[in-house]
């Protein structure tokens, strides 16, 4: 169900581990990075590759906060809301983004470009406040800086 | 286990095997420790935190469900601190619990209710809003109310560990965590799309749910537990003979339960046992005797039906006694089967009697060289050889105990089967996937010399190395349990029965025959040989009249039987429903279902268990034996008829050596009493080899391997004469209305 | 004394992630040395150094290693806990980003000592960009013979797999981490058995924090005594602290163990932002009790001193709060965090954090009453010491300590007086 290149990556990942179930988290990452979110097809595929039943994949997919069962837009804006970022203005940042994008936390803009979420501590405490856009870190943020970052996104 | 340790609990000294779980030591010694997530035989969780105890020298409270007892351990289970901790835990559990006990089916049988009651005042100061969650219908059988769930995960472990079905999991995280099948909570796969619990529908998860989170749909809102009369009886759906607790309200079926049961199956049941018994209260039951008038049946009185039948049988029997045949069924009680045989022998003097069944268990017992294993013994088996049979689909309890042996102590399971059964795929250490109907070759490979292996492997289409390995394991095991499936018949079955004798006598060998029906073995014991198919060939010629009880061969075996039955000049059928076979009858007697009568069944472990009356039969139904007695009386023949099941059973035990010493009282005490079988002489192996060679020559060597996996439900979900009339089974697995009409009215 | 550069010595080096610069700066010498020592000698050296686990629990690393039954005929595993997610803590990130070989060398030495031929770096999924850096470094080490078969002719084989997590604070707990690494939900396991005996795939396993392992090469190179003397008698060596919150220069700073907290704030952190007054500090990441300015003044950054002022050194995430901060709000923030991150396994944590959060929401909405504060404390008692893993306690300590030291901040949110009901006439 994936391109030969991705299939190869999946094969290598499974091969790497002494027990193939260990490849479950990496495989869900790979599938999600390919498809934007975790599809039913991907769950079935991964279950088959790892000799699991779909519910075993589903259990894991619903446990971790980085896995998404629904489309998350092109840019997933994940603003850290935990204490250090909060002390440095994360709540204002979230407010700013909600107003700017005209969506609430957890929503996707109607053009599918942005999804706004709050996340827990990103490990950017000394460079707070911070957010992650997809996998990229943006730190020492201010509302103005956020505007510039969003404006530069392709 | 071996070592015994000394420990102190609440100031008293106790001894226990080293390594045993503390909670088990407490419970076994009558020390009450509250718990939710602990459950015997399931892996410990330490999740509910109800079983906290204080162990001296440990800095925190400990969960007694995970601590193994050790020498010198000093334990407290009843301190003020613990009482507070438990109350605190109940506070948390009750916090978001809906407290809708008045409309909860579990109300009155709920472990949470009991626990709260036991602790008296809980604080109940949850002064914030509860999170209501919708109820989900997981399958036609099972509903889930997540808000009531205490997350003990018993259900998940039951499904994964005991059932090996793996249909339930933990979904989402933390406060939002629920249990459920794949897709639960997934928008795109919402429950509105239909049911998503893809499993055997055994309902064991419902049974062990401590609260009303998992529910049986068919009994919802039907009765409060205390409004129900519950009767322990034996299931009628397969040869395993599970004990069920049949709940009846008024005179109507409500449910089957198994909680806290101590019979051969404990709390285990399958979909048929748990949900397939409601046919007893079906509106479609026959309730009055009927006589055919032309194309139609007319309801008549018992007197008329009996007189009519007696006259017909007398008239036909007068010319030639053997022209009247009596056929019972592997479903009737021992008492009814015994009475049928007496009627045939003493009343009619015919030699043509037996039962409609396709098995050779009479030949198996005639050649038996080792004792029969009980299901409990199979749980402890170290080596299991399973020839034929698909226990998962047709003998769920046997499958469970085999899985248990593999799961708990890694039993060496060897499977010989022409189908890719679930046990072969998932539990077997060695699986010989053979050509259809080639079991004889494998059995021969054990008896024959090694030089024959290549040829026999070829016959069965297995690798010679595999066959070699099987042979070595069988010949080399100190202990062996041989499980025999129903497709093993004839000389092959005899050879299997002789196998224990052939193996060194010093070894502990036992057998578990997978007899198909609830009383396959008892009915053979009672003298009803499975010769129906032979007798059928004489219908219309040597045999002119037939009394058929409890069988529906037209549906089961098709046209040949229908044509044969049509050739008879007289057919009497005793049945629960107007089956395809009953439709051909001249007279139909309405009889009691298993739930409406007293008696006994003998299961596939040759254990005798009680069938107990849980409710009155509707209309004018009678037990089969009573119909026969009345018929004999009407014919003015003396069959030594006894007027109650208990007195008939006394005759059984007096006449049959293997039943000696068994009484209803004893069964009541022991739940299941195993019959003792006389063991046969071991034959010379050259004779066995010769017989097997003849069987081997019948193997169709052009037959290919059946490579498809046995699908879940192939046997479990198959609708039959009785389950067809169980509404929930019908809804889940049934034929469409048209199909049903076709089978019923054909 | 200001900053100390042991673990962070190479942070300013251009191209510091490349093995060439690492080797130029004396890299992999410790591994060479260790491979010539016996396994027991390596373990004893680490024991002697008084290196304590830098992830938060502070357990002696050498003692942990010595628990592994090396004679057992099963594979052994070393797992590096790089699931850095303790709020306030971001020190492991630069250790991997700027000096991956230091960690790899530490892991190789640890694996040698334990007899582990395969080890894992379990890295939180959010640190995705570090996976590439680590994998490149691993490949370089393989190419130069510091990983792979027969390392430096010693006969010792060792490999490292970088394994991404996927967003779960609880996976920082070592047994939850192992479950996650096995492809399961991150629920903590029942202990005992401890991972040292029954860990990954049922085999003996040691789980060490990134910083702990990064310190190992220095201990082997310069000796246990040298390392120990950097710090205090019981807390050896240097430690990284993530300074965040209301200071002028937040950042990661490496200082000796026992360094005064106020020096970290005033010297490394260049004082309070805007010259405001210090109100409170969380010293060791969000899971430790919060302390007030008075206690902070007496606090040195070592395990014993922290304990003496009623808190813990934890993971070294120093969160500084000035006088403008409402401690009710920060506590609310943390209980929301712990509720979000509770794995759901055990009753007190799953239900307790949810209930607490609901009460905080109620107070925030102005509907709180005095009795709610009592209820909060009661619920905390019901959680503490009764949960399946330390997350329960981690959720409770910030609350109980905040209520102890800053109860006024809570009280000002309470409803002033009950509304008086008057009968309509």
Number of strands of chain B: 28
Mean pLDDT across the residues of chain B is 94
Would you identify the regions of chain C where 5 or more consecutive residues have pLDDT less than 50? none
For the sheet with most strands of chain C, the description reads:
5 strands, mixed
Look at the structure and give the CATH class of the largest domain in chain B.
Answer: Alpha Beta
Question: Radius of gyration of chain C over alpha carbons?
Answer: 23 Å
CATH architecture call of the largest domain in chain B? 3-Layer(aba) Sandwich
Mean pLDDT of chain C: 96
Give a quick account of the main beta sheet of chain B: strands, pairing sense, barrel closure. Answer: 7 strands, mixed
Given as residue ranges, the uncertain stretches of chain B (5+ residues, pLDDT < 50) are 189-193
- Give helix and strand order of chain C, one letter per element, not per position: HHHHEHHEHEHEHHEEEHEEHEHEHHHHH
Number of helices of chain C: 18
Strand residues, percent of chain B: 15-25%
State the end-to-end distance of chain B: 61 Å
